[in-house]
Design goal:
Helices cover about 15% and strands about 30% of the residues. By secondary structure, it is α+β, with helices and mostly antiparallel strands. The protein has one domain. Strands 1, 2, 3, 4, 5 and 6 form a 6-stranded mixed β-sheet that branches. The longest helix has 10 residues.
Length: about 200
């Protein structure tokens, strides 16, 4: 077999079903869409897969527009993770921090070479789902710095936001520890993926 050099290497999540834990909920701020020529407030869910076939933690991401609209994908995702409809007081404003640590069974498909979440089903809290990554919540409205353990690709997305370009305090923190974990396929975001949700 020939030795093949590739630009990027990384673990590729195979199609199938995986138990996962929501380990990150990140505010990406207002992101401009080249496709729609406008901007909207985006967030990102980071899920760690319970997959013992890789020595490194494996994650998948999902983008959402920050709205509880009945037509929005975020509302459906929240209600799926909670296992119930939003209560009237939550409908007025839902604290996204409540999603950290919740568990879901993900159905993953191959979408032109990229692992994509097709659907998710809530897993009862009592069911153990192994994981090793810290739970991280980032909300720009607090003015707090971006958490140190935030994956580099998420920091890059935040840096593209309107808020960050207008001087969101403080700047992205550098991680000098030398310890990094891989995201699925060494993911590098592009503008088109932010448009679909």
């Amino acid at each position: 077999m020939a030795m093949i050099a590739k630009r990027k290497s990384g673990y590729h999540v195979q199609p199938g079903e995986y138990d996962s834990t929501i380990v990150g909920v990140y505010d990406l701020g207002h992101q401009y869409s080249e496709k729609f020529k406008n901007e909207s407030h985006k967030i990102l869910f980071l899920g760690e897969l319970a997959d013992d076939s890789s020595p490194m933690p494996i994650t998948l991401i999902q983008f959402y527009t920050l709205t509880l609209s009945e037509k929005g994908n975020l509302r459906t995702a929240i209600e799926t993770l909670l296992g119930r409809k939003l209560r009237p007081e939550e409908d007025e404003g839902f604290d996204m921090r409540k999603l950290l640590g919740l568990k879901a069974r993900l159905q993953v498909i191959d979408d032109n070479g990229k692992a994509t979440i097709l659907s998710m089903i809530r897993i009862p809290a009592a069911k153990p789902v192994p994981g090793s990554l810290p739970l991280i919540f980032f909300d720009m409205s607090t003015g707090e710095p971006i958490p140190e353990d935030t994956p580099e690709f998420v920091k890059k997305l935040i840096a593209r936001s309107t808020e960050f370009k207008k001087g969101y305090p403080p700047p992205v923190q550098d991680d000098d520890s030398g310890e990094h974990w891989e995201n699925e396929n060494n993911y590098e975001p592009d503008d088109t993926e932010l448009d679909s949700f």
